[in-house]
């Protein structure tokens, strides 16, 4: 829910995290991992768990969407949004500060209303023994996240409502253009400003893994990426790798569990996959697609918001589009639009993930290693290897593991 509060931020964070969840995962069960993977009975139990876990997560996702939309509708149609703006105006009449205070209170309120849903997400991680956090650690991170959200959200909201006031007919064009720049800046700064708030990043030490990486880069004909390891085990037993940042902050990040528990060959495959994202310019392509979709979203808001405000003026008590009390309506329309366009980015994402897998296979040419790596990923991350096709279509930003394994096995 909290992410829904400023939906636009969600898109930005999506970009940052697009390559996370990516690749390989492994937990903390130390040296026994290898034998566990091979143990058929345990494998079957694990598969049952994975299906239960993924089903629960899917239900939670859609319930959370409904919950967010319901909150926004109630907040609007009970006149609470206009009431809040009215109260803020008693403190200050300056437009900038009215917007600032309203947004601050609204984000905080949405955070509190959304806590049960966020907590349920954490509860699921604990229930399926994927989390390494206790409640206090988890809640501390939620507070940090809301601070980041305050800063980014306030900048975005002030910007949008400035445009709505100054250019009521063309605001959506300006906002769409600025949004692209803002996203690029945010994706660029995230690895140095935002991500370190939650984890410690250290350069990958000298050793076999680093040596393999260097020869891999030469083979791929790309410059050596900065590679960092992060203390991901602080939060989760899941394991992950990612390509984050753009320009001078571009780097491959490996979770500590991968480094501790994957064989150097498997790590090489992971890195080759991330390099594929870099060589094929995937982050830029996703930024372009997200920007295009957001621009359509802003246009739809432009075409519909004024009419809705007029049609329901008695219950909404919103003066016009530039009235900050229209913020929940702005988010409501964007939420519904995001639901309608839900499959677009995951579908494109699965496409580029297949490309990165192919790149990694071309580089490493070792299907056996890839298959084991994928199996470990599914095992440790409780991935459902064969989700329902509709769920895959709507939510999966990576091909299901069964398809990735099949691809590796049939790779020639
Ligand atoms: Zn990937």
Features:
412 residues; mainly alpha; four-stranded mixed beta sheet; 18 helices; 4 strands; binds zinc ion
Explain this structure.
This protein has 412 residues and is mostly helical. It has one domain. It is 72% helix and 4% strand. The chain contains 18 helices and 4 strands. The protein has helices at residues 2-5, 7-17, 33-38, 40-77, 80-91, 95-127, 135-166, 171-194, 208-220, 256-261, 264-279, 282-311, 313-316, 327-340, 344-364, 367-381, 389-395, 401-410, and strands at 201-203, 226-230, 241-244, 251-255. A hairpin with a 6-residue loop joins β3 (241-244) and β4 (251-255). Residues 2-32 have low confidence and may be disordered. The chain binds zinc ion. The site of zinc ion has 7 residues, from α11 and α15.
Explain briefly what this protein structure is:
By secondary structure, the chain is mainly alpha-helical. The protein is built from 18 helices and 4 strands. The two termini are 44 Å apart.
> How much helicity do the residues have?
over 70%
What would the average pLDDT be, to the nearest integer? 89
Apparent shape: globular
Which ligands appear in the coordinates? zinc ion
Spans of at least 5 consecutive residues with low confidence: 2-32
Instruction: Let me know the largest β-sheet.
Output: 4 strands, mixed
Return the structural class. Answer: mainly alpha
Number of strands: 4
SSE topology string? HHHHHHHHEHEEEHHHHHHHHH
Q: Which strand-content bin applies to the residues?
A: under 5%
Number of helices: 18
Q: Indicate the radius of gyration in whole angstroms.
A: 23 Å
How do the strands of the widest beta sheet line up side by side? Answer: 1-2-4-3
N-to-C CA distance: 44 Å
